[in-house]
Amino acid sequence: MPVVTVHTPATVANIVCGFDVLGFALNEPYDKLVMRLLPEKTVRIINKDNYNLPIEPEKNVIGGALLAMLRELDDNIGFEIESTKNIKPGSGIGSSAASAAGAIVGANALLNNRFGKEDLVRLAMYGEQIASGARHADNIAPCIYGGVTLIRSNDPLDIIPLNFPPLYVTVIHPQIEVKTSEARQILKKQVPLKDAITQWANVGGLVAGFMKGDYDLIGRSMQDVLIEPIRSMLIPGFNDLKKVSMEAGALGGGISGSGPSVFMLSKDEATARKVEGAMRRVYEKIDVDFHIHVTTVNSQGATIQASN
Ligand code: HSE
Q: Atom 8, ligand 1: which residue's CA is nearest?
């Protein structure tokens, strides 16, 4: 039976002002999936890590996505998936999206690329829904397309890959878990018109900044008056992380997805490393356990490493 290995990247959703509509992929960290075709309509999940994620396909994001794909196929086939996660569940850098999108990309390779990219996003969203309780594509789309993506509409899907200049990303992950479903429940369902105006001006500015490669515009557009004021309460030392990062020369940044990770963008690696040091000192002072990565924006998305 053919086998494929997929590397499927972490992603930063929202990019501060674009709640549920903007996201980008990271080069580090990424999960690894090894997938085989099975001769019956079933999904068999084998966890090769210590996260104890459910292996029942209906309760697992990989299973949710692949069952959705199998429903659309007449063939009597299924998939076995060995999953090695390096992206910690609940970290805010698209752990569930990496699983769902990676599984769908791997399955499509085993099927000789029967589905187009937009279909892959649509199918992977069934998996994401299990984790977050909502159908949003701002982690899934960059995980599949790579780079920076705008999701102009979820239904019908309208995904716009954006150009972007070279960017370095510093991501700090305090070792606490924030469940996306819970971080969504605490949000206000209605917002004042004046805040909505500020927000969509910033989303427009950020998209223009990426497309033009205008670092200053990217930086000044990463402002969020709707979500950050509420969710930042869940993240230890959030305001200090932001303050010291800006002082170290970051363009800007904020909560990654629904948190608790916090990301900052920089123009060059030296600045991203300075930001890393500054963030590290904040957490060492308040004694919070953390992981920190300095990486770049991934332009490939989930990729097939080898097949035979
Ligand atoms: N847009 C989603 C949210 C991303 O912020 O809830 C979750 O990773």
A: 257
